[in-house]
Amino acid sequence: MKVDKNYCMSSYLCFRYVADPEIVFKEGVKHDDHIPIPAEDKMPCRSADDIDQCIKKILKDVDLSKAAIFLSGGMDSAILASYMPKGAKAYTARCVAKSAIDETERAAEYCRVNGLEHIIVDVTWEDYLNTMDDLMRRDGSPFIPNEPQAYVMARRAAADGVSTIIYGDCADTEFGGMDKLLSRDWDYAGWIERFTFLDPRKVLKNPVDVGMVYDRYRVGENGIDFIKFISEVYAESATGALTNGLKLANLSFVDPFEKMKMAETLDLQRVRSGESKYLIRELFKKKYPMLNIPEKIGMSRPAEEWMKDWEGPKREEFLPGCIEGLSGEQKLLLFSLERFLNLLDES
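^ that's the sequence the OP posted. Answer follows.
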């Protein structure tokens, strides 16, 4: 293991995780990254029916009598809800803030259709403050903004006697759900500018170039395989945001979509014409012919409201006044990084 705090800080701000598993923030503090399933080991799907059969096959090996589902208002978890046994618990997070998006009504409709017990878990900023340190200690890394939310739900599920969580996070990255990231054919420089969560040069005194991560996906001199980048780099950080909290709550977990992949090249024209996740859309309509397809909403958190009064990081690693012009999500990343560095100093 190599210790390089500056690299780790820069990588976290760019990708929301430390991209090199052999580089750590501090001696003896290893980050526990989610290990993605290799593409060659995933089940190829050409149709909605293929996805349906794969989900059945995957869940056949899960003891669903002791399982629950993380259920949002979106298509992916709604589809998985249709495979759960009657009476199974379905947990939906509801952030408590004026600007928060409430998905509970839509999730309740899925529960009604499938005969599931709907449990709404309210999540506050105080919940974030009370859980983030434990999450970071377990993970050896700053938290990703939706980690505390997932952990609060996981902790509630564990208290209810649940042993396994079913969730549907990777449908977006495997089946063309990231419509904004897929909106154009990016060149190399344009993709870096578009994808980077927070440019380390804007906030760190000693930023490190982490371009080697992007270089793995370079095509020719100016191109980039952004579809593969999404299914690997983005998927690893997004999935890790859920699995860390599930591990901390001592729950096992299954995302059936993570075990699947498109058998044919993603039809970008369909995605860009408003049919993101077109195979998933087709399966949703088969499961819920009476419902409209919901608009995509990421795991909601009112970062703008929660971060509006934060004055920014005070540690010497950060540039003075660096939060000027940053979004709430970016401020939350900085908040997480500074808090983690403080934890390292205490250990």
